[in-house]
Amino acid sequence: MITSRTAKECGTADFGWLQARYTFSFGHYFDPKLMGYASLRVLNQEVLAPGASFQPRTYPRVDVLNIILQGAAEYRDSAGNSIRAQAGEAALLSTQPNVSYSELNISASQPLTRMQLWLDACPEHENALTQKMTLPDTTHFLLASPDGEKGSLQLRQNVWIHHLDLAAGEQITLPVRGPRAYLQSIHGQIDAQGSVSHELQKLACGDGAFIHQENSLTVSAMTPLRALLIDMPV
Are 205 and 185 in contact (CB under 8 A)? Predict the structure, then answer.
């Protein structure tokens, strides 16, 4: 089954220095039916004005994945660690208890646009505190996984995150390991079809979809497409 979550249905914020779209409950936006999906707690797209920052804050035990779409960011923590990432890169923070984290748009002239995901972290797993990768120029690659396979970022949870970058008319079929996954259009229009239900769902730019009980998913790009498939077996 494929159930869409359109961009228009998502929560939004416009504070001047910050513009945001929230897939799940976050900050002032609250929907008790949308507190996350399996181990995916947060899926935000946010734009920070030049020089803007998020002040230090603590997190629950989550992995915070930032995919930089425009501009450049610096992430710092109260333990003295820092990492910078720019457009075409992704940064992963393995948050720790009693450590606070801040985010800064390091440009004085360019907005910072990024996707941010929070994923529940298994309590018995520990990884490097910060990780970064340059996103390869290919139609499909594994962005993050539990064991860092194929050079992907390593998560503290059984989640596989696939990054798609398809030209208009291109199509790809990806296996789905478990009962649940989430498909997110970063930009571009998608025809998504499951292998079990054979249901076809059309997604516009910024839309997402809950994937349930499908063995594989066929993604067809109706326009130039950039998307994520977040595969969550448990």
Answer: yes
Q: Who's near 91: CB < 8 A, 6+ residues apart?
A: 65, 66, 68, 73, 75, 83, 84, 85, 130, 131, 132
pLDDT tens for 75-104 read: 999 999 999 999 999 999 999 999 999 999
Beta strand pairing call for 160-166 and 82-86: unpaired
Distance CA 155, CA 44 (A): 18
The rounded distance, in Å, linking the Cα atoms of 10 and 5 is 7
Residue 82 Cα distances to 77, 92, 137, 159, 206, angstroms: 6, 11, 26, 25, 30
| Rounded Cα gap, residues 227 and 40, in angstroms | 16
HSE-up (13 A, CA, CB side) for residue 103: 25
Domains within the chain, CATH numbers bracketed? 2-232 (2.60.120.10)
Question: Can you tell me whether residue 9 is helix, strand or coil?
Answer: helix
Interval 7-46: pLDDT, tens: 999 999 999 999 999 999 998 999 999 999 999 999 999 9
